[in-house]
Amino acid sequence: MATRSEQEQRRKTLRPHPARDQIVDAMRSYGRPISPTRLAEVTGGSIGSVAYHVRTLLKAGVVELAEEGRVRGAIEHFYALVPASAADLNDPLIGLQRLCGALTVPDAAGGYPQPIALDDPARAQLHKLLDTLRPKVQRIVRDTAKRAAATSARAAESAVET
Asked: Alpha-carbon distance 162 to 158, whole Å?
């Protein structure tokens, strides 16, 4: 098992990946330990791919082995998010950076992109941006819900008429 400092170093160099983001989101939503098999069902990924990404997250200290259980003669592992990393993963500014592909900056020497930590002025600017964006997103979602409800009502009326 990697030491805490090794995990911290791996977490710093962990590059964004859509499958890992989806796995972390599923784990956060599930709220309790979950197996790679179940994660594959939820995310639609293959068990091999999901297991690989869970191992990557485990090595980086983002998830931890929470429990093991026997299933049809085999041992099934259940993983949970590590509370210390959950704070970073739930930070809306980190989510915004991830969404915009801005978690890293190009390396000056041409190597791998480097993770960037936001300073206080940057955090203030991004919070201000989120405050202006949030009502617009909420309005769009409400409008979508209204359209979906209207479509369902029309479909129900149509079914009754036939």
From this structure: 6
Can you tell me the distance from the alpha carbon of 27 to that of 38, in angstroms, rounded to the nearest whole number?
A: 10
CA dihedral 108, 109, 112, 113 (to 10 degrees): 0
Pairwise CA distance, residues 133 & 118, whole Å: 19
Task: Count CA within 13 A, CB hemisphere, residue 85.
Answer: 22
Q: What's the confidence (pLDDT) of residue 47?
A: 95
Integer angstrom CA distances of residue 96 from 21, 91, 92, 110, 116: 13, 9, 6, 25, 13
Helix, strand or coil, per DSSP, at residue 91: coil
Q: Which positions ≥6 away from 25 have C-beta within 8 Å?
A: none
Q: Which amino acid, 138?
A: Q
Q: What is the pLDDT of residues 44-75, one digit of tens each?
A: 999 999 999 999 888 888 889 999 988 888 89
Largest pairwise CA distance in the chain? 69
